[in-house]
Specification:
The complex is a heterodimer. By secondary structure, chain A is an all-alpha fold. Chain A has 7 helices and no strands. Helix content of chain A is 71%, strand content 0%. Chain B has helices at 10-18, 22-44, 47-64, 75-94, 111-131, 135-146, 151-158, 162-181. In chain B, helix 2 (22-44) crosses helix 4 (75-94) and helix 4 crosses helix 5 (111-131). Classes of the chains: A mainly alpha, B mainly alpha.
Chain lengths: 118, 195
């Protein structure tokens, strides 16, 4: 038993099966970009994804800031070991003869901040 | 330049992709995207929606690549299922009465353009009618009659028995014919099918 409505449907099915669109260049590009974005172990992706160290150094302003911080740390240690006379006088006037060493002294942190901003 | 992946099965390419080979993604996309886009287009009858579904389906493939268990399922079977599910999700949203965006048509009355517009109207009507079917029926009908797949493969894709596929496609097709019967004249079938 043939249903005329099903005949119409079969005709439309045939027209639908004939629809074979080719992916546009834009769609191909979108799909490949997705593939690259989520690809595990991709050497290119690894190069694009910075290491923990470089992300940390970027967070504080890159190599100039890192070298500034390193210099500040060395200077802070040196101040601790051999405090200049002014520092000794200053700290002594506030807290007696005890010397408080702060490796992250505000002046040096300010210098590093200038480098970050720059 | 010779294709280093010529003849390699899709599964091998997916493993290569998961291991960081960028070329494998390109070859897989060239192989799979046309069929994925075709399936979505035939169900949805709308280019923009079909492209979105195709991109989404391929994204799911990239994401599952590291966990792909070889030999368990074929990529083509898996993609048919993903696209069918994504499309029925979209069809479900249409039931609220949201009409499809119509792609601008050229204002040319030539017979070929008129025929193209009629085909487009018929495919849109088919898609809207599929949206009114229960989802499993819509999936079975589309895999059988739009993709032309044999029932055992549809059973695998839908993870049901072949008998269930037969039942779903038969009921689905009847229901679809009834839904579309009211649009016969509008779709240009009056002369072909006199009542």
């Amino acid at each position: 038993m043939t249903n005329p409505n099903e005949d119409m449907l079969d005709d439309i099915f045939a027209q639908a099966r004939a629809a074979t669109p080719a992916p546009s260049d834009d769609l191909m590009a979108r799909v490949l970009t997705d593939a690259e974005d989520v690809q595990p172990g991709n050497l290119l992706g690894a190069a694009q994804r910075p290491s923990l160290w470089s992300r940390m150094s970027d967070a504080i302003g890159g190599w100039p800031a890192v070298s500034g911080l390193a210099a500040a740390t060395v200077a802070g240690v040196w101040v601790g070991i051999a405090p200049p006379a002014q520092v000794e006088d200053l700290t002594a006037s506030f807290i007696g003869d005890e010397i408080s060493i702060n490796l992250f002294s505000t002046d040096l942190a300010f210098d590093a901040g200038e480098l970050i901003d720059g | 330049m010779p294709d280093p992946f010529a003849g390699a099965p899709d599964e091998a390419l997916l493993v290569a992709y998961a291991n960081g080979d960028g070329q494998a993604a390109k070859v897989l996309t060239q192989r799979l995207l046309p069929r994925v886009l075709g399936q979505a287009t035939r169900i949805l009858g709308n280019q923009t929606e079909a492209e979105d579904v195709a991109q989404d389906a391929m994204m799911r493939l990239w994401k599952i690549a590291p966990d792909w268990r070889q030999g368990e399922a074929q990529i083509s079977t898996w993609l048919y299922r993903v696209v069918a599910n994504l499309c029925t999700d979209r069809l479900r949203k249409r039931r609220g009465g949201v009409s499809l965006d119509q792609v601008a048509e050229p204002l040319d009355g030539s017979p070929s353009v008129t025929a193209q517009m009629q085909t487009k109207d018929r495919l849109t009507a088919l898609s809207d009618a599929l949206a009114q079917l229960p989802e499993r029926q819509a999936q079975a009908v589309s895999l059988r009659h739009l993709e032309g797949l044999p029932n055992p493969e549809i059973a695998q894709i839908m993870d049901i028995s072949v008998r269930s596929v037969e039942s779903l496609t038969a009921r689905g097709k009847r229901a679809l014919a009834d839904i579309m019967a009211g649009r016969k004249a509008e779709l240009g079938y009056d002369d072909d099918e006199p009542e």
